[in-house]
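wait is this the right file?? whatever heres the structure
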Protein backbone atom coordinates (compact mmCIF):
# COMPACT_ATOMS: atom_id res chain seq x y z
CA UNK A 1 0.00 0.00 0.00
CA UNK A 2 1.19 3.52 -0.78
CA UNK A 3 2.05 5.96 2.00
CA UNK A 4 -0.99 7.91 3.20
CA UNK A 5 -1.24 11.56 2.27
CA UNK A 6 -2.19 14.20 4.83
CA UNK A 7 -5.00 16.70 4.34
CA UNK A 8 -4.95 19.84 6.48
CA UNK A 9 -8.33 21.20 7.64
CA UNK A 10 -9.73 23.81 9.97
CA UNK A 11 -12.99 23.71 11.96
CA UNK A 12 -15.80 25.34 9.96
CA UNK A 13 -18.26 27.78 11.52
CA UNK A 14 -19.88 28.93 8.26
CA UNK A 15 -22.82 26.63 7.51
CA UNK A 16 -25.76 26.43 5.10
CA UNK A 17 -25.98 28.67 2.04
CA UNK A 18 -23.27 30.97 3.42
CA UNK A 19 -20.61 28.46 2.33
CA UNK A 20 -20.60 30.18 -1.09
CA UNK A 21 -18.47 32.86 0.59
CA UNK A 22 -15.98 30.19 1.65
CA UNK A 23 -15.73 28.86 -1.89
CA UNK A 24 -15.06 32.36 -3.25
CA UNK A 25 -12.24 32.64 -0.71
CA UNK A 26 -10.64 29.43 -2.04
CA UNK A 27 -11.93 27.18 0.75
CA UNK A 28 -13.68 23.84 0.31
CA UNK A 29 -16.44 22.98 2.81
CA UNK A 30 -16.42 19.41 4.11
CA UNK A 31 -17.93 17.16 6.77
CA UNK A 32 -16.35 14.32 8.71
CA UNK A 33 -18.50 11.56 10.16
CA UNK A 34 -18.11 7.97 11.25
CA UNK A 35 -19.73 5.16 13.17
CA UNK A 36 -20.53 6.40 16.67
CA UNK A 37 -19.07 9.85 15.93
CA UNK A 38 -20.75 13.23 15.69
CA UNK A 39 -20.49 14.94 12.31
CA UNK A 40 -17.84 17.66 12.28
CA UNK A 41 -17.88 20.58 9.81
CA UNK A 42 -14.43 21.47 8.46
CA UNK A 43 -12.90 23.50 5.63
CA UNK A 44 -9.90 22.76 3.45
CA UNK A 45 -7.81 24.76 1.02
CA UNK A 46 -9.54 24.02 -2.30
CA UNK A 47 -6.38 24.22 -4.44
CA UNK A 48 -4.38 21.96 -2.11
CA UNK A 49 -7.24 19.43 -1.99
CA UNK A 50 -7.39 19.37 -5.79
CA UNK A 51 -3.64 18.72 -5.98
CA UNK A 52 -3.77 15.91 -3.43
CA UNK A 53 -6.85 14.38 -5.07
CA UNK A 54 -4.99 14.15 -8.40
CA UNK A 55 -2.18 12.20 -6.73
CA UNK A 56 -4.12 10.08 -4.21
CA UNK A 57 -7.39 9.61 -6.08
CA UNK A 58 -10.87 9.14 -4.67
CA UNK A 59 -10.30 5.63 -3.28
CA UNK A 60 -7.29 6.28 -1.05
CA UNK A 61 -7.08 6.42 2.72
CA UNK A 62 -6.02 9.88 3.95
CA UNK A 63 -4.86 11.36 7.25
CA UNK A 64 -7.09 14.34 8.00
CA UNK A 65 -5.41 16.74 10.41
CA UNK A 66 -7.92 19.20 11.85
CA UNK A 67 -6.39 22.28 13.45
CA UNK A 68 -6.84 22.20 17.25
CA UNK A 69 -7.09 18.39 17.46
CA UNK A 70 -4.27 16.32 18.91
CA UNK A 71 -3.79 13.71 16.20
CA UNK A 72 -4.99 12.98 12.70
CA UNK A 73 -8.11 11.12 11.60
CA UNK A 74 -7.85 8.21 9.12
CA UNK A 75 -10.54 9.00 6.53
CA UNK A 76 -11.83 7.89 3.13
CA UNK A 77 -13.87 9.98 0.70
CA UNK A 78 -17.55 9.04 0.90
CA UNK A 79 -18.99 11.88 -1.15
CA UNK A 80 -17.55 14.42 -3.57
CA UNK A 81 -19.85 17.07 -5.05
CA UNK A 82 -18.59 18.93 -8.10
CA UNK A 83 -19.77 22.13 -9.75
CA UNK A 84 -22.16 21.23 -12.60
CA UNK A 85 -21.49 17.54 -11.90
CA UNK A 86 -18.01 17.38 -13.45
CA UNK A 87 -16.30 20.64 -12.48
CA UNK A 88 -14.21 21.63 -9.49
CA UNK A 89 -15.05 20.08 -6.09
CA UNK A 90 -17.57 22.16 -4.09
CA UNK A 91 -18.16 19.85 -1.08
CA UNK A 92 -16.56 16.72 0.39
CA UNK A 93 -17.81 14.11 2.83
CA UNK A 94 -15.13 12.16 4.70
CA UNK A 95 -15.83 8.94 6.57
CA UNK A 96 -13.56 8.33 9.55
CA UNK A 97 -12.57 4.67 9.74
CA UNK A 98 -11.43 2.56 12.67
CA UNK A 99 -7.99 1.13 11.73
CA UNK A 100 -8.69 -1.94 13.93
CA UNK A 101 -11.86 -3.00 12.06
CA UNK A 102 -12.09 -4.31 8.49
CA UNK A 103 -13.96 -2.22 5.91
CA UNK A 104 -15.08 -2.68 2.31
CA UNK A 105 -13.28 -0.60 -0.31
CA UNK A 106 -13.21 -0.30 -4.08
CA UNK A 107 -9.82 -1.04 -5.67
CA UNK A 108 -8.73 -0.19 -9.21
CA UNK A 109 -7.57 -2.98 -11.55
CA UNK A 110 -4.17 -2.45 -13.17
CA UNK A 111 -3.69 -4.28 -16.47
CA UNK A 112 -0.13 -5.46 -17.10
CA UNK A 113 1.56 -7.40 -19.88
CA UNK A 114 0.49 -8.02 -23.46
CA UNK A 115 -2.11 -10.56 -24.51
CA UNK A 116 -0.55 -13.00 -27.04
CA UNK A 117 -3.96 -13.32 -28.72
CA UNK A 118 -3.82 -9.57 -29.47
CA UNK A 119 -0.16 -9.45 -30.49
CA UNK A 120 0.06 -12.70 -32.49
CA UNK A 121 -3.52 -13.33 -33.63
CA UNK A 122 -4.61 -9.71 -34.32
CA UNK A 123 -7.47 -9.93 -31.82
CA UNK A 124 -9.08 -7.05 -29.91
CA UNK A 125 -8.80 -6.84 -26.13
CA UNK A 126 -12.21 -6.61 -24.47
CA UNK A 127 -12.21 -5.25 -20.88
CA UNK A 128 -15.43 -5.17 -18.90
CA UNK A 129 -14.30 -4.40 -15.34
CA UNK A 130 -12.16 -1.60 -13.93
CA UNK A 131 -12.60 -2.04 -10.17
CA UNK A 132 -13.36 -4.75 -7.60
CA UNK A 133 -14.61 -4.60 -4.03
CA UNK A 134 -12.29 -5.86 -1.28
CA UNK A 135 -12.61 -6.35 2.47
CA UNK A 136 -9.59 -5.63 4.64
CA UNK A 137 -8.24 -3.37 7.37
CA UNK A 138 -8.12 0.31 6.32
CA UNK A 139 -4.33 0.44 6.46
CA UNK A 140 -4.07 -2.61 4.16
CA UNK A 141 -6.16 -1.30 1.24
CA UNK A 142 -4.07 -2.01 -1.88
CA UNK A 143 -3.51 0.82 -4.34
CA UNK A 144 -4.50 -1.53 -7.18
CA UNK A 145 -4.72 -5.22 -8.12
CA UNK A 146 -2.79 -6.51 -11.13
CA UNK A 147 -4.45 -8.31 -14.02
CA UNK A 148 -1.91 -10.30 -16.07
CA UNK A 149 -2.97 -10.08 -19.72
CA UNK A 150 -0.25 -12.53 -20.84
CA UNK A 151 -2.62 -15.37 -19.87
CA UNK A 152 -4.89 -14.50 -22.81
CA UNK A 153 -3.20 -16.80 -25.36
CA UNK A 154 -6.22 -17.50 -27.59
CA UNK A 155 -9.80 -16.39 -28.22
CA UNK A 156 -11.29 -19.02 -25.90
CA UNK A 157 -9.38 -17.84 -22.82
CA UNK A 158 -10.88 -15.22 -20.51
CA UNK A 159 -9.99 -13.69 -17.16
CA UNK A 160 -12.44 -13.48 -14.27
CA UNK A 161 -12.30 -12.01 -10.76
CA UNK A 162 -11.44 -15.53 -9.52
CA UNK A 163 -8.12 -15.28 -11.42
CA UNK A 164 -6.98 -12.26 -9.37
CA UNK A 165 -4.38 -12.69 -6.65
CA UNK A 166 -4.98 -10.49 -3.61
CA UNK A 167 -2.28 -9.54 -1.10
CA UNK A 168 -2.28 -11.27 2.27
CA UNK A 169 -5.05 -9.96 4.51
CA UNK A 170 -7.16 -8.71 1.59
CA UNK A 171 -10.33 -10.58 0.58
CA UNK A 172 -11.91 -9.87 -2.81
CA UNK A 173 -15.69 -9.81 -2.26
CA UNK A 174 -16.71 -9.27 -5.90
CA UNK A 175 -18.24 -12.48 -7.35
CA UNK A 176 -15.35 -14.67 -8.65
CA UNK A 177 -17.27 -15.50 -11.84
CA UNK A 178 -17.48 -11.85 -12.97
CA UNK A 179 -15.75 -11.41 -16.31
CA UNK A 180 -12.71 -9.07 -16.48
CA UNK A 181 -11.17 -9.44 -19.94
CA UNK A 182 -10.87 -11.59 -23.05
CA UNK A 183 -9.73 -11.23 -26.65
CA UNK A 184 -12.23 -11.06 -29.51
CA UNK A 185 -11.19 -12.53 -32.87
CA UNK A 186 -10.61 -10.10 -35.75
CA UNK A 187 -13.47 -9.37 -38.09
CA UNK A 188 -12.87 -10.68 -41.60
CA UNK A 189 -14.40 -8.65 -44.37
CA UNK A 190 -15.08 -10.57 -47.54
CA UNK A 191 -14.62 -8.52 -50.65
CA UNK A 192 -16.36 -9.53 -53.87
CA UNK A 193 -15.50 -8.26 -57.31
CA UNK A 194 -18.09 -5.88 -58.65
CA UNK A 195 -19.23 -6.83 -62.16
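ok assuming it is, sequence goes like this
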Amino acid sequence: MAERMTLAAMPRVVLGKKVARLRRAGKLPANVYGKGLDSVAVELDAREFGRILKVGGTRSLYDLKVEGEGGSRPVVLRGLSRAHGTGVPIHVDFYQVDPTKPIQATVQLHFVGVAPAVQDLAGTLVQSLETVVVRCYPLAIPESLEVDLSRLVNFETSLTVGDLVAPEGVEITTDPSVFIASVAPPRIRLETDAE
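The mean pLDDT is 88. so i think its the right one actually
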